[in-house]
């Protein structure tokens, strides 16, 4: 970071990146500086970057956790009118990130099967993505197991969103079995590579 300026007579003006050995600016140096200043895995409000998951899914997970995915309700809040804000998968809830990803009856069945597959003792209702993460965080899992669970949860949310989009834009009904199998296949592929 450029934190101070020095006046050096008889020299041309220049900028130097403070943490870089040669003073050059690179994205790698920015990441190194930020990661040395912050532990991104400490709090749920911070972005949890998992190397077992693609950057696209990590970004989706981050947006979903904060309710920032472009659901019908979110688009309506941004001024887009005329959208049907009823959940396309169950027909009863509001099409917002919380409902689509954790509260919808259709997605809840997917979560039940994924939690069973992961052998996680979560039998109570899932209220939000943050609540789900907090509950898993309280289980005292090893870092490796927590990363695997995070990767599977990220894939689960991405697959649920894709299923919702197939319903909204293509009229295709969500098949719980196919979504669960997609989650397992993609998670296994990411974790083993």
List the helices and strands and how they pair.
Elements: H1 27-37, H2 55-65, H3 72-77, H4 97-103, H5 105-117, H6 129-137, H7 143-170, H8 176-192
In short:
The chain has 193 residues and is an all-alpha fold.
Calculate the mean pLDDT score and round it: 78
Oligomerization status of the protein chains: single chain
Number of helices: 8
How many strand elements? 0
End-to-end gap: 35 Å
The total domain count is 2
Range of helix content: 40-55%
Question: Could you characterize the architecture of this molecule?
Answer:
This protein has 193 residues and is an all-alpha fold. The chain has two domains: 1-37, no CATH class; 55-192, no CATH class. Helix content is 53%, strand content 0%. The chain has helices at residues 27-37, 55-65, 72-77, 97-103, 105-117, 129-137, 143-170, 176-192. The longest helix has 28 residues, at 143-170. The chain is extended, with a radius of gyration of 21 Å. The relative contact order is 0.11. Residues 38-47 have low confidence and may be disordered.
Key attributes of the depicted protein:
193 residues, mainly alpha, 0% strand
């Amino acid at each position: 970071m450029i934190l101070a300026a020095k006046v050096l007579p008889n020299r041309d003006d220049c900028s130097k990146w403070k943490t870089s050995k040669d003073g050059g600016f690179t994205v790698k140096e920015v990441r190194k500086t930020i990661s040395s200043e912050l532990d991104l895995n400490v709090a749920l409000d911070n972005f949890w970057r998992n190397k077992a998951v693609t950057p696209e899914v990590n970004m989706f997970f981050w947006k979903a956790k904060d309710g920032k995915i472009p659901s019908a309700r979110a688009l309506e809040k941004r001024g887009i009118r005329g959208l049907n804000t009823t959940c396309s998968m169950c027909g009863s809830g509001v099409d917002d990130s919380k409902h689509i990803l954790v509260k919808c009856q259709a997605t809840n069945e997917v979560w039940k099967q994924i939690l069973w597959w992961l052998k996680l003792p979560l039998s109570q209702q899932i209220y939000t993505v943050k609540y789900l993460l907090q509950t898993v965080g309280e289980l005292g899992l090893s870092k490796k197991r927590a990363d695997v669970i995070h990767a599977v949860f990220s894939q689960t949310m991405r697959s649920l969103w894709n299923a919702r989009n197939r319903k909204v834009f293509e009229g295709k009904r969500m098949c719980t079995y196919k979504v669960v199998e997609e989650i397992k296949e993609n998670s296994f592929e990411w974790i083993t590579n």
